[in-house]
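Give me structure tokens for this 201-residue protein.
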Amino acid sequence: MTSDGVNHSRRRFLTGATCVVGGAGVVGAAVPFVSSWQPSAKAKAAGAPVTINISKLEEGGRLVVEWRGKPVYIVRRSKETVAAIAIMDTSILRDADSTAASQPAYVTGSARTLAGHEEILVLVGLCTHLGCAPMYRPDVGAMDLGGASWMGGFFCPCHGSKFDLSGRVFAGVPAPTNLEIPPHVYESDDIITIGIDSEIA
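Here you go.
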């Protein structure tokens, strides 16, 4: 204690202790605040790749899985269907070559698939008009969809857009572009992972 009655060493100790406790409080408050900037586990899962086993998907059948909050349709087409798509009258389609379509560069041809997997179609099941979910209508010759000219495909009940069995949009309907093809890769003939590009995997 000094002559003026002040204990400077005690004052220094109390000031230092207050700073340490205050600093710990700031760090304690900052950690949850900074952590809140990180995506949640649910958000991470929503953007994560999805792996599907298609071994039990029968010819003409369709699976629906969710990826990034969107429905993804996986359809197993017959060899005859793929052959019919290749010789289809493309004048009834808006973008037969998928030049304006949202699809990976490695997805090619009228089948809109990866080479060697032409019978499997993977596409986002959202109409490119206003985002309704198109109905899978593989029934060839359906009278309500054009009779003999209907070779199977997808029909959007919201505003009448039609797509063939490759997801290519018909001319004269509200949808502006073909159905989107998501990035995907084949781990084997029966295992597909959606959300990973084949060129990267």
